């Protein structure tokens, strides 16, 4: 028999937070510095979950071996750190969901592939309440997602088993991480899904198109 859920873990970019508006600004700022035309917001938005390397490839069509690739990536990260929480907000429905979790004494946290250098200042700036009880970045594990180590660590920090965790993410790597840990998984189809990708193919236990759909799923597992 399935164990009752004791915690909910979220991926960060594209699941808990809509960080894309700030990335749109800094990617286009970098393009402007390089005398390149701006990219449409929706093109940048779709690539945010794949990290800074993917954004440089998207914006400049450069391979990682190109001599300008890493300098451009470092400049992008510098610009982002200076603009980290200007336009970023919780996705619609997340604030209400966090309140529901608090009302039912369900812990919540974050398991992200975003380095702590950016995750921690972002979370400090937003000061989300109730605050997460676990924030796991690649810096805290030997193997980042899709490896399940992040959720094993979350279970240790939150005092629960991985199978007592629901993990929500907007990329197949998140679902693979959750599945590998034995957690219940929810695909956030409202997030930054790559063009041509389909969350229905990620083998998640559930798939939602809006954060308002998450609480009824959690209720089934209380």
Descriptive labels:
six-stranded parallel β-sheet, 13% strand, 41% helix, alpha/beta, single chain, Rossmann fold, 222 residues
3D structure, described in words:
The longest helix is centred in the N-terminal third of the chain and has 14 residues, at 20-33. It is built from 9 helices and 8 strands. The strands form 2 sheets. Strands 5-4-1-6-7-8 form a 6-stranded parallel sheet, with helices on both faces. 41% of the residues lie in helices and 13% in strands. By secondary structure, the protein is α/β, with parallel strands linked by helices. It has 2 domains: 7-18 and 88-220, 3-Layer(aba) Sandwich (Rossmann fold), CATH 3.40.50; 20-81. It is elongated, with a radius of gyration of 17 Å. It has helices spanning 20-33, 41-47, 51-60, 69-81, 94-103, 116-126, 149-158, 172-181, 214-220; strands spanning 7-10, 17-18, 89-90, 107-111, 134-136, 165-169, 184-188, 206-208.
Global morphology: elongated
Describe the oligomeric state of these chains in a short phrase.
single chain
Residue windows where pLDDT falls under 50 for at least 5 positions: none
Strand order of the largest sheet: 5-4-1-6-7-8
Assign the CATH superfamily of the largest domain.
HAD superfamily/HAD-like
Report Rg: 17 Å
CATH topology descriptor of the largest domain: Rossmann fold
What's the overall average pLDDT, rounded?
96
Number of helices: 9
Sketch the major β-sheet: 6 strands, parallel
The class by helix and strand makeup works out as alpha/beta
H-E string: EEHHHHEHEHEHEHEEH
CATH architectural group of the largest domain: 3-Layer(aba) Sandwich
Number of E strands = 8
- Tell me the name of the CATH class of the largest domain: Alpha Beta
